[in-house]
């Protein structure tokens, strides 16, 4: 049938000019779609196999090529490790620490240039999108440094027979379902993440980038983001939550917003554990110059600084902890704890900004909990490390902090820890500024059953040299108008009762009212405190300071002995009076009985 609508010669020429290319493109698309899938499959399998040294195998069920759109859609992709190859490498001590398994139902590649791949052996893709992939990662510490392998070729040298280069503009993995299994500890630690996103930009593997150390996995930047993550420790005693986490390999920064490590409820926690109950909250955590690649490969933590801001650290001593006089608690000293860490650690500076530190202890005698608070704590901790090369350059960790004791008195503290000394040598000194004694009652009433009724601290300073065996130094305690009330528990009414007579006795004859006294005499204290083997770090620090405080307030050894003798004499006289009273009442009762019987 004639084409009646093509009446003019120019119309027929135009029609032929447009129709012929369209027909050719459509036929080409059909042919390419038919033969593209096996060609692409062969290329992908070859690239994955060669670049992973035969460790990984890749496959997919089908692929669609849309030439006009420059798009490829690949279905049911799998990336699996070859366990036989892995076990062989493990026997040869060449196995990687991390194994990955990936499953993706649908992958979209945009801005693809298939002809350059087929004719020029150049894989050039503008964007790759993987939605809701399933990613299983397992970690096992097979080696702690790069192993010597026979094949020293780079990734580009391995793929160069099949491809001249691989270039991908952006790789997006959205809503990743991640399962992470860590076999490096005593127990397998399993973590699951759902709201996880990955993005990688400018992936380029060619002869120029094969030795580019500024790239991670040949990408200019890899960004990992996690939202609303919740996990649990293997013991079940702690849950940890992260509102948002972001890691950028380009900036080498790890940022966390809304970090929380929360212990189980007290009855559950102390029912399962003899350890102290700890907690951590932080609005912001930032790790700078974080060497992610070495952490990922070998579990080494290296960073220029770690900042914790706007949060709270809590500690609650276990009230049911059994005394253990045989175990040396020197392991609780920070320099010993760093030494025993099961990872290679190197942080140049830990920055604390506006953190509250709250210590709680339950007293069995008073049946109440005492609280010691260090509010709005800020400062720096330098050279936190157990790395041998770092310690060889500097074997001291130093601390410089400013805090507000019981949210009132400013306390400046400096500490210095020797990281190589076998006796865990360290020093600490500081100064506490003015505050009212009454601010101490949340601690002194439950823990010492002493209520501060009046007085103020003018200055408290200390300078102590210490190790695991003995603490030595000087303590100065300046204050005015100290008065106290001694207490005893009233369990029936869940409160305290006053020891009126003992309180008067203490204020009149025991406690020094002020230091310096009315004559201007200042009392300082030289301290020598021998640490009991079972005394942990913070308890020993407090006991040493208390040993220095006592003489300043009039409780030196001689005064304490005299006071004890007076109290013992008072109690003895009281017992005799009670005994005499009881005997008089007994005789009175006996006389009354005889009178009632008519025998008196």
TrEMBL record:
<feature type="region of interest" description="Disordered">
    <location>
        <begin position="560"/>
        <end position="600"/>
    </location>
</feature>
<keyword id="KW-0812">Transmembrane</keyword>
<keyword id="KW-0472">Membrane</keyword>
<feature type="compositionally biased region" description="Basic and acidic residues">
    <location>
        <begin position="560"/>
        <end position="583"/>
    </location>
</feature>
<protein>
    <recommendedName>
        <fullName>DUF748 domain-containing protein</fullName>
    </recommendedName>
</protein>
<feature type="transmembrane region" description="Helical">
    <location>
        <begin position="17"/>
        <end position="36"/>
    </location>
</feature>
<keyword id="KW-1133">Transmembrane helix</keyword>
């Amino acid at each position: 049938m004639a084409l009646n609508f093509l009446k003019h010669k120019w119309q027929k020429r135009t029609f032929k000019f447009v129709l012929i290319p369209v027909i050719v493109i459509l036929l080409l698309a059909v042919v390419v779609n038919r033969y593209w899938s096996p060609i692409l499959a062969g290329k992908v399998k070859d690239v994955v196999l060669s670049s992973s040294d035969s460790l990984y195998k890749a496959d997919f069920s089908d692929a669609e090529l849309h030439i006009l759109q420059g798009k490829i859609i690949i279905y049911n992709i799998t990336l699996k490790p070859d366990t036989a190859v892995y076990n062989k490498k493990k026997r040869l001590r060449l196995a990687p620490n991390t194994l990955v398994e990936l499953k993706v139902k649908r992958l979209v590649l945009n801005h693809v240039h298939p002809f350059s791949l087929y004719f020029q052996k150049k894989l050039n893709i503008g964007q790759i999108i993987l939605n809701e992939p399933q990613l299983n990662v397992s970690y096992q510490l097979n080696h702690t440094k790069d192993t010597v392998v026979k094949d020293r070729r780079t990734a580009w040298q391995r793929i160069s027979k099949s491809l001249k280069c691989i270039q991908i503009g952006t790789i997006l993995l959205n809503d990743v379902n991640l399962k992470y299994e860590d076999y490096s500890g005593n127990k397998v630690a399993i973590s699951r993440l759902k709201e996880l996103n990955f993005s990688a930009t400018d992936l380029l593997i060619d002869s120029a980038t094969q030795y580019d150390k500024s790239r991670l996995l040949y990408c200019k930047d890899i960004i990992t983001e996690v939202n609303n993550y919740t996990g649990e420790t293997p013991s079940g005693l702690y849950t940890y939550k992260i509102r948002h986490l972001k890691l950028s390999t380009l900036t080498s920064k790890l940022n966390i917003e809304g970090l929380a490590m929360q212990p189980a409820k007290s009855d559950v926690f102390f029912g399962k554990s003899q350890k102290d109950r700890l907690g951590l909250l932080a609005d912001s955590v930032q790790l700078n110059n974080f060497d992610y690649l070495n952490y990922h490969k070998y579990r080494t933590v290296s960073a220029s600084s770690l900042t914790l801001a706007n949060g709270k650290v809590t500690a609650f001593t276990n009230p049911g902890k059994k005394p253990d006089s045989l175990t040396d608690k020197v392991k609780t000293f920070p320099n010993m704890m760093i030494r025993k860490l099961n990872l290679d650690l190197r942080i140049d500076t830990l920055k604390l900004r506006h953190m509250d530190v709250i210590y709680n202890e339950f007293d069995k005698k008073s049946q109440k909990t005492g609280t010691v608070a260090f509010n709005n704590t800020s400062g720096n901790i330098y050279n936190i490390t157990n790395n041998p090369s770092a310690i060889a350059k500097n074997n001291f960790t130093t601390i410089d902090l400013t805090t507000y004791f019981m949210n009132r008195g400013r306390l400046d503290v400096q500490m210095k820890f020797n990281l190589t000394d076998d006796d865990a040598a360290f020093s600490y000194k500081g100064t506490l500024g003015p505050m009212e004694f009454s601010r101490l009652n949340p601690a002194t009433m439950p823990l010492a059953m002493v209520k501060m009724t009046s007085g103020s601290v003018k200055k408290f300073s200390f300078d102590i040299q210490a190790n695991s065996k003995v603490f030595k130094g000087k303590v100065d305690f300046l204050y005015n108008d100290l008065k106290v009330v001694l207490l005893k528990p009233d369990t029936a009414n869940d409160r305290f009762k006053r020891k009126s007579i003992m309180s008067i006795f203490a204020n009149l004859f025991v406690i020094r009212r002020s230091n310096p006294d009315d004559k201007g005499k200042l009392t300082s204290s030289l301290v020598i405190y021998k640490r009991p083997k079972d005394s942990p770090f913070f308890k020993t620090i407090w006991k040493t300071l208390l040993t220095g405080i006592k003489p300043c307030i009039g409780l030196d050894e001689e005064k304490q002995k005299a006071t004890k003798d007076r109290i013992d004499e008072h109690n003895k006289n009281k017992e005799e009076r009670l005994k005499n009273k009881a005997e008089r009442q007994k005789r009175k009762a006996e006389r009354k009985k005889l009178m009632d019987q008519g025998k008196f």
